[in-house]
Amino acid sequence: MRVDWKSKLNRISTELSKLIKGQVNWTSDQLIDLEEDLIIGFYIIRKLIDGNQLTNELVSTRLLAKRYPNLASDVNILNIHLLHRHYDFQKPKEQKLTIGFLINQFIHSYIFHPVLELPHNKLKFTDLASQDVSDDEFLIYYENSKMNLYSILINSDRNRNLYIYEVPITLIVDLFKRVAECNPNTTEYIYNQQKKDFVVKRSNDDSFFDDIDF
């Protein structure tokens, strides 16, 4: 039986869209559901790439995110929650990430941390982290406010002691929608002598070619 991955991805993007301006009183279950949706969403994209169901132009898109450097701090399972002590949120640097890199970060995530935004003043975790805020104050901030979902802080086991990346949720939703709506109409098979197999090139006149920024 053929799984309709694109329909599943479209449903996930619709649910994620509701969280951007949802002013949610976040619970542990909602945060778990969010992480599950994102991991499944990026897994679906990998399945579609592996199955040659997306255009080469879309697969090669690079997405503009931010990265924050590690403060020469070893991140481990006992201190993983102290993000503001591990990473310098005062020194963001823009970086264009490949879709393949993002897939690996989400599927093999070591840190997964939603950045929530207070709707009335647009204050976010990354803003507070650049100040001298106690752990208790962080807890109060997250437990006593209705907040919108702004972005995701993410990294993998391999790079957790180097950087943490911030990916806007609007960018992720846009990517999921574009992937779900991508229907290549041209296929070219090119034999690769080194691989002893054919490389599939798929395209569509309606594909987008530019990098996505936020």
Could you characterize the architecture of this molecule?
- The longest helix has 23 residues, at 28-50.
- The strands form 2 sheets. A 5-stranded antiparallel sheet has the order 2-1-5-4-3. A two-stranded antiparallel ribbon has the order 6-7.
- The chain is globular.
- The chain contains 8 helices and 7 strands.
- It is α+β, with helices and mostly antiparallel strands.
- It is 38% helix and 24% strand.
Oligomerization state of this entry? single chain
Provide the helix percentage: 25-40%
Structure class: alpha+beta
Q: Can you list the strand order of the major beta sheet?
A: 2-1-5-4-3
Beta-strand segment tally: 7
Q: Report the C-alpha radius of gyration, rounded.
A: 19 Å
| Tally of separate helices | 8
Can you summarize the main beta sheet? 5 strands, antiparallel
Supply database-style keywords:
214 residues, alpha+beta, two-stranded antiparallel sheet
List the helices and strands and how they pair.
Layout: H1 5-20, H2 28-50, H3 56-59, E1 62-69, H4 83-86, E2 93-98, H5 99-107, E3 109-117, H6 125-128, H7 135-143, E4 148-156, E5 163-168, H8 169-180, E6 186-192, E7 197-203
Antiparallel strand pairs: 1-2, 1-5, 3-4, 4-5, 6-7
Helix pairs in contact: 1-2, 1-8, 2-5
